[in-house]
Design a protein that fits this description.
single chain; alpha/beta; Alkaline Phosphatase, subunit A; 9-stranded mixed sheet; 3-stranded antiparallel sheet; disordered N terminus
Length: 434
């Protein structure tokens, strides 16, 4: 069922307030995690004559035909994968930006330093699970058990959401490390089925629900049982609060979302944002996710299908924020385990990489720009870990997250609490948000 925050975060249910006009304080961050390692080398592609020729020569069977690419008017030396027309429109209208060659880093790292092992690198590079955790906790270690969004919730919830009836963070893709704080946790809901909460056991869900209800009704002196009972009861209460708010106060959005996995998730997030006043929140963080981008074989058709899911979903979500008059107050961004190796493998796929390109979109984005340092696309070149085109990041995921957090309202003095490694980098705000 639903994952929920600690009991102290629960407010009496009571009568929900009518939907009120938004206050200037309201802001939301929406993380869209691309699980499996999205090959961003085939998302943002050099489009000038020499740049594309080099790309095509090195990518071989994974190279996309130049006449199929979507040119970026605002950045004419780059083009997008042909499955991203909505992202192209957002970029060219100044509502989206790319951050290039960003990845997990402990501190800035050159090829020579990495190969000599003289400076620390993130633990367990090229491992899906470990790199997902390190993107989500911004600690570059798998032993850190809080996520950076959770630590923001620990810091900001009492100030910004003192009357909240739900946790600071909501996930529509399960309870992930990103959402977990030391004293706070998320509410996890199922897109299109908010009343049911989150259940991942398939045919066993019915039994789990029955057990859950028994736990809620069971009183005992055992502290562990009482704690489980409290958490489960809180989860059900949060789900009931959200469901009633949506039933009582949500006006159907005119924006049409695609009926795909990510579209349903982002539509659910838009609906929750719509009833923010009823839920008593002025700050929110959301988590959505899509997989599987682990394209070791048959990459071209698999990635084409996945990108055809994310582009219309992202475009619709931005339009929904415009419809609600909140486009400047909601910023969405992608994260992924890592990018892929530039050199194709023998199965018409690509293997695990490191640094890659991420998308940020929303009305507050200083868009139409490509931020960061685009890697020199040369096998064995200065950005390569070795000889296969696994780019050493030139921007850290910590800098990326801190820029988002600063826009969200985390004071400069508290950034080090949320991001302990941030002081290792000279640039702490990357400038892609106003």
């Amino acid at each position: 069922m639903a994952a929920a925050g600690n009991a102290a975060g629960l407010r009496p249910f009571g009568v929900l307030n009518s939907l009120a006009a938004t206050t200037p304080q309201y802001q939301a961050l929406v993380c869209i995690f691309l699980f499996g390692g999205n090959d961003s080398n085939n998302v943002l592609i050099p489009f000038d004559v020499s740049g594309y020729a080099n790309y095509a020569a090195l990518r071989g069977p994974l190279a996309l035909a130049q006449n199929s690419l979507l040119p970026l008017t605002a950045a004419p030396t780059y083009a997008l994968h042909p499955s991203l027309p909505e992202i192209q429109t957002l970029f060219d209208t100044g509502k989206a930006a790319f951050l290039t060659n960003v990845g997990t880093l402990v501190q800035p790292l050159t090829q020579a330093q990495y190969q000599a092992g003289v400076l620390a690198a993130p633990s367990n590079l090229f491992s899906h699970q470990d790199q997902q955790l390190e993107w989500q906790n911004s600690a570059m270690s798998t032993v850190t058990n809080t996520g950076w969004a959770g630590r923001i919730a620990d810091l900001m919830a009492a100030k910004y959401n003192p009357n909240a009836q739900i946790p600071f963070i909501a996930s529509v893709d399960g309870d992930t490390l990103f959402c977990n704080g030391a004293s706070s946790g998320p509410v996890a809901v199922v897109a299109e089925s908010v009343n049911t909460g989150q259940c991942s056991e398939g045919a066993a869900c019915g039994g789990r629900v029955a057990t859950e209800q028994a736990i809620i009704k069971f009183a005992s002196g055992f502290s562990l049982v009482q704690q489980d009972r409290s958490i489960t009861e809180n989860a059900d209460t949060y789900i009931s609060i959200i469901a009633e708010a949506l039933a009582s106060n949500a006006t159907p959005l005119k924006t049409v979302f695609p009926k795909n996995a990510l579209g349903l998730q982002l539509e659910q997030i838009a609906q929750m944002i719509q009833v923010r006043a009823s839920l008593g929140v002025t700050r929110q963080i959301f988590f959505a996710g899509l997989g599987n981008f682990d394209t070791h074989a048959g990459q071209l058709p698999i990635q084409e299908k996945l990108l055809s899911v994310i582009s219309p979903a992202m475009g619709a979500f931005y339009q929904a924020t415009v419809e609600m008059g909140l486009q400047d107050q909601v910023t969405s961004f992608t994260m992924s385990d890592f990018a892929r190796a530039f050199q194709p493998n023998s199965n018409l796929g690509s293997d695990h990489g490191w640094g890659g390109h991420q998308i940020i979109f929303g009305g507050a984005v200083n868009g139409g720009k490509v931020y960061g340092t685009f890697p020199e696309q040369a096998l064995g070149g200065p950005n390569d870990v070795g000889i296969n085109g696994r780019w050493i990041p030139t921007t850290s995921s910590v800098q990326y997250a801190a820029t988002l957090a600063s826009w969200f309202g985390v004071p400069d003095a508290d950034l080090a609490t949320v991001f302990p490694l941030l002081s290792n980098f000279s640039t702490q705000n990357l400038g892609f948000l106003s």
